[in-house]
Amino acid sequence: MIQVLNLLLGGVFHAAALFLVAAGLQLVFGVQKILNLACGSFYALGAYAGISAVKAALAAGVPAPLFVLVLIVTGLALGVLGPPIERLLRTIYDRDEAFQLLLTFALVLMLEDVIRFVWGAAPAQLGNVYLLYGQVRLEGLRIPVYNFIVIAAGLAIAAGMGLLLTRSRFGGIVRATAENRSMAQALGVDMARISSRVFTLGLVLGTVGGALVIPAGAAVNEMAIELIVEAFAVVVIGGLGSMRGAFVGSLIVGVLKAVAIAVYPEAEMLAVYVIVIAVLLLRPAGLFARVTA
Amino acid sequence: MRTTRRQFLKAWGAAAVAGATLRLHAAPALAQAGPVKIGVLAAKAGVTAPVGESGLRGTQWAVERINAGGGILGRKVELVVEEESNPKDTVERFRKLVLQAKVDVVVGVISTGVGLAIGPAAEEEKRLLLMWDGTTQKGVEETMPKPRYAFRSVDNEAEAVMASILTARHFKGKIKTVAGINNDYSYGRDNWAAFLAIMKRFGLNVTPVAELWPKLGETNFTSHVAALQQAKPDLIFCSFWSGDAPILLKQAHAAGLTASTRLVMTTAGGVHEQLKKAFAPEGMILGYNSLYFEDPKASALSREFSRWHQEKFKEWPTYESDHGYFTVVGYKAAVEKAAKAAGGKWPTVEQVAEALEGIEVESLSGKRGYRADHIMEATYFQGLSTHKNKHDFVTLESVEAMSTKQIQKPSGMGLYDWIASWNV
Predict the structure, then answer these.
(1) What CATH number is given to the structural domain containing A81?
(2) Nearest to B274 among A125, A223, A262 (CB)
(3) Any idea which of A158-162, B196-200, B309-313 has the lowest mean pLDDT?
(4) Do the domain assignments include residue A288?
(5) Residue B107 phi, psi (nearest 5)
């Protein structure tokens, strides 16, 4: 029983990281109607910047247990990149989808090179902080408390996004713009400002996600592409533009992968795509597809 | 003054004759003063980027020293570097190096997929290709049965063979169950299969209780660690060679797996500075392929390179640097040998190819060379890991050095037939 729980926890941990990338993707698609392939790059940027920030903070004497805060602040601080990148993408909002994919893919490649230029080609990591908060011991199993922190952060952000979108004025405007852009514009919504803010929010979801997960792993140059592929599976399963879809989709992908690894490891890569194919065949718009104008 | 057609033609004619004369007179001098061009296909992006960088550093250092010593037969060496990416684009860049840049030899290549595509291209263009890596076995017999211009690196299973031999030596009688976690592509599959075959050959009778196949590039192993914990193996065999190695160790350590299970990491020495003491245990069999930076028996040359590398890049070198170094130095030695046989003239490509067969030179890891079948002979370094050092990452407690004559299958023999023929 405890083994099953351990397995599920591993899956949910992965799902939390995926959700943060996919949520950014969904948000940007919902409002700007562009598929931002660079969502994975923002995650990678958050990871690398998080490593540098924590190393600098620890060297400067910041008490070690505060490293989580350093990571979150770093992720948020990277939000300054939002407006300029959004400005760049604004040029293709009304263009053919092929242009959008090309431009955001170009961004992915450029950001990968920027990362390699700044941080080098070798993997980077935070060696010692993963176990700083200790481990939970359950019947011979040891689970780092940090894993629970990441899962909790994922849940908190999901809840926060939910509240933001349903209860706040900004959320109302975002949803209105997503549903019917021209009507929202006619009602006086400043498209430029909303686009900029939504994009920045989407970017920050990715960077904070990347920064938060990095103590448990390492940053490698090609991590962006790996995540984009999985985020896409999440988005296809959950439905394009839906936050609920990102949440449920990530859980499905994370848990399914964990189950496959435990039960039939040969199917590790295949398991997720079987679900993707099933969804495309049975409910092509995704599980929580939205109807947009 | 208007130029008439006649004057124009005269001027051009004079220029042409002058040019031809100049070229005729300059020809012998140019041939000697012109540089030797070595084309390099080095990976720059993606998972092989650190490996490509490592190889390129070894090549650059070799060229620096060769030029400081006067070059090859008096000709300076120039590097023309192109990127190794996917097979199709890399083959195009290979042709560009050979046909446009007119390089004398091409070195590089790490990915097996690229190697399989580029070997036949080298044969077609009749240009020497000295590959750094990328020699997982399947498909090689079909694409390059008897290469004339292409020279390959050590068989990629050599590290698994050596690690398996060390496993049998250190852990026989202590392990009953094994688990494998290897990347899901030819390298991972071949290494795991070789390990199991050798376990059997040595009579260890171990039962595989888990076989995991994460894709190359996976960065999260919490579920894999959970599956390994469920299987409870006595030993875990892992052929990770990139960023996934430290991630796996970190997550395995956090789950308590590294304390209770023996580990064999055949190639994690390639990212050795990432194997921090905080999570990498002592007593795991750790492989560094053909370069261990702190070998107590290292030559002066090797020590000089390690020092140079550490000073310049603030990190210690890894095995690909020796592949990079050897391919250049080996080429130089072959050119000199062939020139001598050809009476002092600059040798042809075919003459150099012949000279490369059976050659032996001093590299960063001791003696290295090529067999008659165009496959590298080198020395591999593995051992048990220790925390007793002045770094923040693990190193080897004692270094075991084995020649490829012991751990690489001989010419013309299949791997499994060779293992079956061992006297155990």
Answers:
(1) 1.10.3470
(2) A125
(3) A158-162
(4) no
(5) -120, 165
pTM of the complete model: 0.90
CB contact under 8 Å between B247 and A269, yes or no, is no
Q: Are A255 and A15 in contact (CB under 8 A)?
A: yes
Show residues of chain B in contact with A141, CB under 8 Å: 229, 255-256
**Tell me, what's the pLDDT at B30?**
35
Residue A221: per-residue pLDDT: 87
The residue segments making up the domain with residue A264 are 2-282
Check if B208 contacts A (Cβ < 8 Å): no
The answer to whether residue B231 neighbours chain A at the CB level (below 8 Å) is: no
Q: Is residue A290 part of a domain?
A: no
The answer to whether residue A191 sits within a structural domain is: yes
Residue type (1 letter), B234: D
Chain A hits for B215, Cβ within 8 Å: 268-269
The number of distinct structural domains making up chain A is 1
Residues 295-354, chain B, touching A (beta carbon < 8 A):
315
The ipTM estimated for the assembled molecules is 0.90
Asked if B416 reaches chain A (Cβ–Cβ under 8 Å), the answer is: no
Asked if residue A6 belongs to a domain, the reply is yes
| Residue of A113, A222, A258 lying closest to B226 (CB–CB) | A258
Supply the pLDDT for residue B23: 47
**What is the per-residue pLDDT across B237-278, written as a single tens digit (0 to 9) for each?**
999 999 999 999 999 999 999 998 999 999 999 999 999 999
Query: Tokens for A250?
Result: 């990530």
Q: Are B230 and A131 in contact (CB < 8 Å)?
A: no
